[in-house]
Amino acid sequence: MLNRFAMRILAIAALSISVAVTGVSGVHADGVLAARLSALLGQERITIQQVPDGRVAALTAVPPAARNIATAPDVMTYDQAFLTSQPTASGGEQWRCLSEALYFEARGENVRGLFAVGEVIMNRRDSSRYPSTLCGVINQGTGRQFACQFTYTCDGAAESIQEQAAWVQVGKVARLLLDGAPRQLTDGATHYHTRAVSPRWARIFPRTASIGSHYFYREG
């Protein structure tokens, strides 16, 4: 049986969807939703404030179907023909962060390798061990010596997109992952490294996959 908090969260999600699908938009939609939420929450405000913002956002997000946007296909073929057939992608801040990570970390990989690296980032976002947003995961430790999690964020090189074809490609991969593409390549991996290095943690975590120029590992 759902506890009271879970029931409140489900009710919040239902309100969000209701506002989205009934055509209420813009500032008016924000006002309507805020008023309904205020009436609904009551004494639950303190409880919900203890939940990380990213987790509440994920629970209350309007599903893709209600937002009238495409969802990722259920069957992935991980080849160039499949990726080429996908529409040119775009998105907000989280899409941009994931696209940049794929571009700077893995643009030389084939389609399978791109998705594998993307899975690691998505898996970290969903793990309580890491920040609850993609941008937070990717930039964790940036600016602190030996603390960055993704090499390109602390290698001192300018982060400039020069290869437009590669950018379009990684953007499609990021969009598919954000839209719910199944993560079935790395068995829940949270780490990877190139074959050219051997970090200490690679002797501790179980290896889950070898794809392209990377080995993949699952923490814990």
TrEMBL record:
Signal peptide: none annotated. Pfam families: Hydrolase_2. GO terms for molecular function: hydrolase activity. Residues 108-217 form the Cell wall hydrolase SleB domain. It comes from the Bacteria. Keywords: Hydrolase. This is Putative cell wall hydrolase. It comes from Octadecabacter arcticus 238.
